[in-house]
Structure formats: C-alpha cells, structure tokens
Design brief:
Elements (H helix, E strand, L loop, with lengths): L1 H17 L9 H18 L9 H15 L5 H5 L1
Helix pairs in contact: 2-3
C-alpha cells in the first residue's frame, strides 16, 4: 500500500510541477514549427497519404491550419 501511495504522490507532484495548462500562451512561431513537424512526419510516415485524397485536398488542410495559427494564442486554441 505504501508503494502505491508513493507512486501516486510522485505522479501527481510531477504533473503539477512540470505540466502545462491548456490556457497557457503559446507563441505563433512555436505553433508554426509544430505544424511543420506534424506535416513532415505525416508525409514521411504515411505512404498511402494520397491514395484516397489528392495533393490539393491534403494541402488545403495545412492551409486551413496555417490560417488557424494566426487566430490562436493558447495551447487549447491551437490543438483543437
């Protein structure tokens, strides 16, 4: 029982000490970098990306996301 309590206490304290609030500010520069990383990973890891959608359709998603970045200021805004 003590081991479980210690593990739980460690987990909770870690979340409070190092966790981020979804309402924290998030710079647009970092949002754009995250979007670039996501796009690169998706293109490299998904070999069937253009199997059911055209390149223009897929690219339109990233255009929409780039426009969304301009109106976002928090983590919650960006990731929704």
């Amino acid at each position: 029982m003590i081991k479980i309590s210690t593990t739980f206490l460690f987990f909770i304290s870690t979340v409070f000490l190092f966790g981020q609030s979804i309402d924290d500010s998030f710079s647009r520069k970092k949002m754009k970098e995250d979007l670039k990383v996501f796009k690169r990973i998706r293109l490299e890891a998904n070999s069937g990306l253009y199997k059911y959608r055209t390149k223009e359709q897929i690219d339109s998603i990233y255009v929409w996301a780039k426009n969304k970045v301009e109106n976002s200021s928090t983590y919650l805004d960006f990731y929704i």
